[in-house]
Amino acid sequence: MHGYIKTGNSQPAWLFPFIVVVVLFLSVLPLARLAMVGIAAFASGGVIDVLSEASLWSATYYTVVTAILGTIISLVIGCLFAFLLTLTDIRAKGLLSFFFVLPMMIPPQVTALAWVQMSGPSSPLLKALHIAPPLGSPQPLYSVGGIALLYGVQHAPLVYLALRAGLMTLPRDGVEAARLSGASSLRVFRDIILPLSLPGIIAGAAISFVSCTGNFGIPAIVGIPASIFTLPTLIFTKFSAFTSRTFGDVAVLSAIIAIISVVGLMIQDRALRGRDYRVIGLSGASAAFELGAWRLVFTPLVWAILFFMLAAPFFALVAGALVPAYGVPLTFKTMSLHAFEEILFRQAVTRTAFINSLSLAGATALCLLVVTVLAAYALTRRKDAASRIVASLIEIPYSLPGIVMAVCFILVFAAPIPILHVSLYGTIWIILIAYFSSFFAVSLKPVVSAFHQLDPALEEAARLSGAGFFRRLADIIVPLIAPAAGASVILVFLIACNELTISALLWSAGTQTLGVAIYNLDDSGSSDLASALSVLVVLMVVVLMLLLELLAKRLPKGVIPWRG
Amino acid sequence: MKTIVSAAALLAASLFAIPASAANLVLYTSQPNEDAQATVDGFMAANPDIKVDWVRDGTPKIMAKLQAEIQAGNPVADILLIADMVTLERLKEDGKLLAYKSPESAGYDAALYDADGYYYSTKLITTGIMYNTSAAMKPASWKDLTKPEAKGLVTMPSPLASGAALIHAQTLAAVPGLGWDFYKSLAENGAIAAGGNGAVLKSVASGEKAYGMVVDYMPIREKAKGAPVEFVFPSEGVSAVTEPVGILASTKNADAAKKFVDYVLSEKGQEGFLKLGYIPARNGMKLPEGFPARDTIKVLPIKAAEALKNTDQDLKTFSGIYGSN
Which region is the signal sequence (chain A) (predicted)? Predict the structure, then answer.
């Protein structure tokens, strides 16, 4: 983008200020409130105490190490699937893709629970095979490697979706031209596909890294038992021992997480610099490669990975829901439906949590999309310092663990809102606003990358022919970014549906989310109920995805992320 | 595209059209979900005109939530039913509780409720040792957990997540011959402290650990369901919390809240706790299945006022021994 479009006349004057106001409300206000508390802690000298705590530095170390390892694992798995399912003629692509995206819908704490149940001394699976480790064996997942592995599994679909969106728009003509000139498959991959897909890979890595640093569910379940604390779990434990110093301590801890995330994002920015590839139109390079004999290697490989990511943990969950008590081997004799009965017919929280999570996730995804499209337009068309600042401000709430954002919003909305005299605290609205703030970046990413790949000439032509802003939006931009917009809505919906860390602090009587309900059930020692509810959540997600699958014919091409 | 957007808007609108359930009583409790639901169901059956919404979390977390709400000037809870009298004593001193002289208190030992009627104990929950039946050693005393046979096999709840665990640590710390040194030697023996009592139950029943400090009803109840666990009341004695009930001064439903207090103290409410496997606090009640006779259980004393004063220091001491958890 060299300044041959004057920003002033290519977008309406209200657009950028509008985005700035939204960002001020969602990012700056809550963080400023937290910063004030942090500065007050500084002034009272509390910061020295926090910074001198060994636990803080070990948590920082573990956060960085697990996030880097987790990102590497998610990149390996995510890229493998993205390339195989987008560019080759591997069989049952639709099914594979559907299954591969599914684990992302499973809340991280459920993933962690399922893996723990799958692999420990009490694993019904291993017990049935008589290969369960002896009593007191350390659970292998309670380690840095365990946390990283689960991060990788949890975030691989994020990498896959980010990369796939880019791969779908690869110029087929480029590949064909290379082919006709006699280039080998490897050569085509190395010289055309890989360079063009790098932005997608880098974006995927950044999303994954940021998600790892802020993840709470996984280190809470597999880290705490081994006394491995990451910054989010350290913050959580600080909160459960509420003292006058808590807010100040948390402000400092949050600042460290923010720094880690921002460093990660700066590396992404550097990596993306000068890689602004724009290609015309949508010409998916489907099946650019024929696998031939390699099929025998890749087909079992991807199915095996899926079995471990999806099938085995799911069966472990079902088994966990069916055992009558802990440690009882699961057989047809001991099987009990008690947990499902309790969850479906007795626990009032089940219905509440389903309604809350679905409405929160739906409202968050749709409302954000409207703002996101406008914001992406404004941010990609303006290349000035102001827009870069706004872009990083949008990133910050997502890079912070949900628990920090939750605290910010408690501080902001603790007192009744002036003039209106309503108190949002303890209502569902405070969760919704915190979701807007936290998932803005998630919603924005795919849309921005789509804008980056738009050829400005198209819109330019419309503008020169006198089409107004909304006309250009409706006729040119929206159809072209529809796939990314769809991906954005679905991503946000899924993430919000399974969210735990924000709602863990903001929920109240009657506003429990599914994440809270599951974590809370497990926390009280009813992991059979937690597993039963998790099974229902997974089934609900599958039903939702199948509904989208049925609608696929009516939606613009590419709206459903797992479809070719 | 337009149709999709409007359909989406309709969908969003319809999701919000579902009215939030209007509750007229909100209970904050640290009982496990099934027990909380059963308690609430029992109360609502006895008082069909009152609807109760409830929230469950570990006592420290519930308190953190409540403190935040009180600071926000918008406490949601009407009633608390949480681990220990020390916590409620603190709330009473802060003027956060409502005094109510329940007629049911006649059936209770005077030591089990606040003379001014700010809170009433509802059960007796002791903390002892549970072990996995495949464990090599059968522990009989707290000291047994520091033996080499138990190296790396002991787990306990963290006082940061469980109110009972805090009282337990404070109780044992005051016992001559145990004290904080006992906790130090446990830590040297590879014991870990993480999460609440539920986590301990899971960890021992599943065989990840062999021994755990835990509240009595959990393993006793699970054993009845067939889990491979046993529970012992150690020879030195057990700590106890009494899960008191109290009404918040800020309640807008004082009458309904008083009915709730009367219900959990009444014979019928206490029967309900008995069925769930708790030792009822009310005089003349039976003990649940699987418990030894009540007079054989040696309950260690705790000085509430001192415990209250030392809470922050004790949490620090504990964290110092067990890392930040």
Answer: none
Residue-level pLDDT at B1: 44
pLDDT in tens, A324-378: 877 777 777 778 888 888 888 888 888 889 999 999 999 999 999 999 999 988 8
**B18 interfaces chain A, CB cutoff of 8 Å:** yes
User: Which candidate from A121, A324, A426 shows the least CB-CB separation from B206?
Assistant: A121
- pLDDT of B22: 44
B217 is in an annotated binding site: yes
CA distance A3 to chain B (A): 31
Given a contact cutoff of 8 angstroms between Cβ atoms, the answer to whether A264 and A209 are in contact is yes
Q: Where are the alpha helices (DSSP H) in chain B?
A: 2-16, 33-46, 59-71, 85-93, 163-173, 179-188, 197-205, 217-224, 254-265, 267-276, 304-321
Judgement on whether residues B188 and B316 belong to the same structural domain of the protein: yes
Task: Check residue A310 and report its DSSP letter.
Answer: I
Are both B130 and B220 inside the same structural domain?
A: yes
Q: Tens digit of pLDDT for each residue in B99-144?
A: 999 999 999 988 899 999 999 999 999 999 999 998 889 999 999 9
Q: For testing the chain B interface, which of A242, A523, A551, A554 should be mutated: the one with the most B CBs within 10 Å?
A: A523
Low-confidence ranges of chain A (pLDDT < 50): 1-9, 281-282, 285
Domain with B93, as residue range(s), is 23-122+243-291
Helix (DSSP H) and strand (DSSP E) numbers for chain A: 28, 0
Domain annotation covers residue B16: no
